[in-house]
Amino acid sequence: MNTIKSVKTRVWNWTGPTVPPQAKFCTNASDILREEGDAMQSFRFHGWLTCEIEARDGTIGIGNAALAPDLVKLAIDQYYAPLVIGADPFDYAYLWEKMYRTTHAWGRKGIGMTAISAVDIAIWDLMGKLVNKPVFKLLGGRTKEKIPVYYSKLYADNIDAMQAEAETALKQGYRAYKSRFGFGPKDGMPGVRENLVRVEALREVIGYDNDLMLECYMGWNLDYTKRMLPKLAPYEPRWLEEPVIADDIHGYAELNSMGIVPISGGEHEFTLFGFRQLLDLNAVSVIQYDTNRVGGITAAQKINALAEAYQVPVIPHAGQAHNYHLTMANANCPMSEYFPVNDVEVGNELFYYIFDGDPEAEDGFLQLDENKPGLGIEISSDHQKHFNIKE
Predict the structure, then answer these.
(1) 137-380: what fold?
(2) Contact 271, 293 (CB under 8 A)
(3) How far apart are CA 236 and CA 104, in angstroms?
(4) Distances 159 to 26, 156, 192 between C-alpha atoms, Å
(5) Residues of the chain with pLDDT under 50
(6) Which pTM value belongs to this model?
């Protein structure tokens, strides 16, 4: 039997050049507090974790995690790696439950679930490589010829810069776009007007035949969002993303039940049980888990099935290979988020500097190669000089 021989984790801290973001490039959950330094600091990350699981024959599966990589590394090294070493990787359902239940007292959300995600993704990549099949083939196969993607950047900036960026993306063939709000409750009515004028400016560029999604990144509250929804409705957003903090599930339910603008969320939710609560309360019209947070591919596939029964689409957060394979294999996943290849700014861009093989969008679509086993990515050596790598 080709069992798991070892689990190796590394933290990749970016030391290369970065692009300083605008002061109000995106609202966030810390905005409600008084200003003390950079309110977005805790949501901007310049580190990543890789998890390499080696089988007895030398085949290596690669997982990853972007949240709190130093803490996730400790969790994997001390708690989760010993639970899977010596096991058959094809017993992935058992291994997932073993990791989840053994650490249930402290690991069922946050750091623990992010660690489980990294290990689980690596196991799926390993399985695909062992049978020489891409992961999406193990999940059910191709449900679409290619994956539509939406352009995800358009951080709040001056209006001319945002329109110029949208115009460039439009010429590149994108037919869906996501922008971020820069103003929230503490900015009062002047901030409301600043938000609206930017939405209107983007619609002037992309028109109304293309989708526009709007993100708050938990930077608003229930009262402010209820006031904003009627003002946003004339611009026909496909969804309003994470308007309130992730724990305010009933707030999401109230906003979604208003029926003015569809509400999306789930980027900061975990496991099948967390999404059952969201669905039972009709709290979201679009689910946006991230596979490297939610519990890995094993958990994500269960959420996909549950969401399909509720007829709520799943559009994973952040793109990246682990999310693309699930999107390809599920009819209820209509498209993917896509961060364009860019200089390091917020942190999502690091994926392109750490890994080779992540598919690039062309004319608003991307493709998965049926001849690449596993997730189709490998750790790159091209940019390692720009990282401080912690073994």
Answers:
(1) TIM Barrel (3.20.20)
(2) no
(3) 42
(4) 14, 8, 15
(5) none
(6) 0.97
H or E, element range at 103:
none
Computed on alpha carbons and rounded to an integer, the radius of gyration of the chain in Å comes to 20
Fold exhibited by the domain 4-132: Enolase-like; domain 1 (3.30.390)
How confident is the model over 292-351, as pLDDT tens digits? 999 999 999 999 999 999 999 999 999 999 999 999 999 999 999 999 988 898 888 999
Beta carbons within 10 angstroms of residue 370's beta carbon: 13
Model pLDDT for residues 178-187, shown as the tens digit of each residue = 999 999 999 9
Select which of 268, 317, 322, 325 is catalytic. Answer: 317
Could you confirm whether 317 is annotated as catalytic? yes
- Where in the chain is CATH 3.30.390.10? 4-132
Percentages helix, strand, coil for the chain, rounded to the nearest 5? 40, 15, 40
Taking the C-alpha atoms of residue 163 and residue 202, their distance in angstroms, rounded to an integer, is: 6
Q: Which DSSP category does 34 fall into?
A: P
Q: Is 21 within 8 Å of 182 (Cβ atoms)?
A: no
Q: Kindly report the length of the chain.
A: 391
For CA atoms 321, 246, 21, 364, the dihedral sign is positive
All CATH 3.20.20.120 domain ranges of the chain, comma separated, are: 137-380
90 by DSSP, 3-state: which? Answer: coil
Determine the 3-state secondary structure of 209 from DSSP.
Answer: coil
